[in-house]
Amino acid sequence: MAKTDEAASDDAALGYEQARDELIDVVRRLEAGGTSLEESLALWERGEELAKVCRRWLEGARARLDAALADQGEAG
């Protein structure tokens, strides 16, 4: 299932908390069961995309923190 450019840009616009909250909901729905195989696969794929969004936010935050600490070390 190919991701459309529009859907990809929608994911890029998600904030960390929004993506995390939606991911939590996806996990709860998967854990609850009672969905068809097709729906479960769609939920899994959505969860993977949301996890990528969260990972990008966290990696960006880590890079900013590392840069700030490096700048502080050079100034000190």
From TrEMBL:
It is an enzyme of class 3 (hydrolase). Keywords: Cytoplasm, Exonuclease, Hydrolase, Nuclease. Signal peptide: none annotated. It is found in: Cytoplasm. It catalyses: Exonucleolytic cleavage in either 5'- to 3'- or 3'- to 5'-direction to yield nucleoside 5'-phosphates. InterPro entries: Exonuc_VII_S, Exonuc_VII_ssu_sf. The keyword Nuclease applies. Its main location: cytoplasm. The keyword Glycoprotein does not apply. Its EC number is 3.1.11.6. It comes from the Bacteria. Bidirectionally degrades single-stranded DNA into large acid-insoluble oligonucleotides, which are then degraded further into small acid-soluble oligonucleotides. Heterooligomer composed of large and small subunits. Belongs to the XseB family. NCBIfam families: PRK00977.1-3, xseB. PANTHER family: EXODEOXYRIBONUCLEASE 7 SMALL SUBUNIT. This is Exodeoxyribonuclease 7 small subunit. It comes from Streptomyces violascens. The lineage of its organism: Bacteria, Bacillati, Actinomycetota, Actinomycetes, Kitasatosporales.
